[in-house]
Amino acid sequence: MEKDRNRVPLDPTVAGPLFMLSAALLFTLLNVIIKQLGPQYRIWDIGFYRFFGGMLVLLALFGRHHNPYRGNNIRLLIIRGCTGSAAFVCLVTAIRLLPVSTALVIFYSFPVFSALFSFLLYGERIGKNEIVCIAAVLLGVAILFDFQLAGGVLGQLTALVASVFAGLTVTLIRTLRANNGPVIIYLYFCTMGTLATLPMYLRHPVLPATPMEGAMILGIIFSSVLAQLLMNQGFFYCRGWEGGVFMSSEVVFTAGVGIVFLGDPATLRFWMGGAMILASSVALNRLRAHTIVVVPVGAPTAPPNP
After folding, report:
1. What pTM did the predictor assign?
2. How much is the average pLDDT of 168-181?
3. At what angle do helices 211-234 and 240-247 cross, to 10 degrees?
4. How far is the C-alpha of 88 from the C-alpha of 110, rounded, in Å?
5. Which of 201, 206, 284, 290 has the most CB atoms less than 10 A away?
6. 294, 281, 303: which is closest to 17 by C-alpha?
7. What is the torsion angle, in degrees rounded to the nearest 10, for the CA atoms of residue 221, residue 79, residue 102 and residue 46?
């Protein structure tokens, strides 16, 4: 008890962006690994390995001494798990149907949907300056990928559905984060995702054929676990649409990996779009610094318990 009383609270204007940017880096690693997997791995194979592997890791680490599924608002934990799983499956489907750039341009509109759901569910209004930041992020993503909206209507619609589900998912975390830690939020996500992908996976399971493929599957599992835990923890310090703006830096990191490791050209679009995305994140953080209310010492807070 004395240790908890003396614990220094983290500054939300530092902790929120730090957790989100760290998660974005790990999601970039996840994207690279998935991209390197052979075409024999279907959407259901990738999803099953990510969800089932993540569930096993969390149960092994946190389920030995208590019931790891015991949380607050179980119904909402299940709903969030379903919406998050739907977002992931739809995004991977869109990437298979569309050029990656097109899929990401559409998907990273999810901070807009998060802001909309925040208003519909919580009556949360967004100021003009924050709207400008969100718009600048969307414009930056579009510039970075040269405004390309190629591919069929089905793929574009799937990417948009993924964006809507992602916006709803990060908004629901606002309620869950008050009495649930990042571990249990992700555990329900993995469990719902496992149940969703298991039937299609069992119809024609694709197993790793080489040690390299096995290592890549493990990379998908552990990078996604760390990324998701960091992101969930980040939502203790920022709202859903704010976290979405910070997470949009993932597209900058992904494009940077392509330039550094895959020989992609460092075009003017990359510098302009990347600068707009990062500048918008910095501006949003400065706005948050002027609006966050500091909780007095000794005031009740919701601990980020597993």
Report:
1. 0.79
2. 85
3. 140
4. 13
5. 284
6. 281
7. 30
Q: How far apart, in Å, are the Cα atoms of 70 and each of 87, 172, 189, 230?
A: 25, 18, 14, 21
Q: How far apart are CA 28 and CA 21, in angstroms?
A: 10
pLDDT tens track for 5-47? 444 566 777 888 889 889 989 988 887 888 788 888 988 999 9
Ordered DSSP codes for 226-264: HHHHHHHHHTTSS-HHHHHHHHTHHHHHHHHHHHHHS--
Categorise residue 263: left if φ over 0, alpha if ψ from -120 to 50, beta otherwise. left
Average pLDDT over residues 256-279: 76
Nearest to 50 by CA among 230, 225, 232, 221: 221
* Helices 128-144 and 100-107, packing angle to 10 deg: 180
